[in-house]
Amino acid sequence: MNSKLSTLNSKLFLASGEIFGGTSFGAKKSASGEVVFCTGMTGYLEILTDPSYFGQIVVFTFPQIGNYGVFPFHNSEFISKSQAEKKEEIPDQARNDNFFIDEIFESKKIWARGVIVAEASEKFSHALATSSFGKWLEKNDVPAIAGVDTRKLTQILREHGTVLGAISETNPEKFSDPLDGRFVPEVSPEKMEILEPEIPDQVRNDKMKTIAFLDCGAKNGIFRNFLKRGIRVIRLPFDADPFACGEKFDGIFFSNGPGDPEKVFETIATIKKCLAKKIPTFGICLGCQILALAAGGKTKKMKYGHRSANQPVRDLKSGKCLITTQNHGFVVDKKSLPDEFEIWFENLNDKTVEGIRHKNLPISAVQFHPESCAGPEDAEYLFDEFVKKLK
Question: CATH number for the domain including 114?
Answer without folding.
Answer: 3.50.30.20
